[in-house]
Amino acid sequence: MTARTLAVYSLKGGVGKTTLAVNLAWASATLSSRKTLLWDLDGQAAATWLLGHDPNGKEAGAAIRREVDARKLIRPTAIERLDLLPADVSLRELDVAFRTLDKKNRLAKLVGDLAGAYDRIVIDCPPGLTDTSDQVMRAADLVVVPVIPSALSRRALDAIAVHVGAKKGPKVTLAPVFSMVDRRRALHREALAQHPDWPAIPMASAFEAMTDRRAPLGTFAPRGSAGVEAVAALWQRVEAALARV
Question: What predicted TM-score, i.e. pTM, was given to this entire model?
Fold first, then answer.
């Protein structure tokens, strides 16, 4: 069975993108018992660090150029059925690499190389509308877009939708998710009321604790807690969406 590929992407940083990617990868491996790969494509390597690995190599960029077999860089994590393709500082020049290669489907082909060994591939993407984001849109079956309930974040989502719509060829499915939701705030409640069908991930101190624990939320937060339940509910929606694409 060929893996389904899920990208977690945002035009801007600071919206909970990496936290969401790590938690969805955990949900895939744990809640759905799927063999899962988290591919960290962000040069900040935050997902790599959260999963317990130190981003001290310089081969991630070489894998994009096919100078190194990406499969040889994959590392196991402490979570059963979840592997990591780590990021490092070489990915800070990822846009330059894609532009120099001038191969629009390079990332899609690399995903294809990895797909035989996994049921799900989750890509943590760098922010911005760039050559990298265009590569991601061609490689992913579904793109989850975290959106803070604010006008600026909604404008960013609209910009992504316009950009995707203007591209030729098959269109990737965008799946907006409210992130860092604080229902005590009137603006957040108003945004949720405008889009009641969007999943919502709450603002919770447990998500911040992931940085100290260097682990997904579900590995240490109690089942039934608001954060874990929100991740599980979102993952059910993601699985259903992947089944349709």
Answer: 0.95
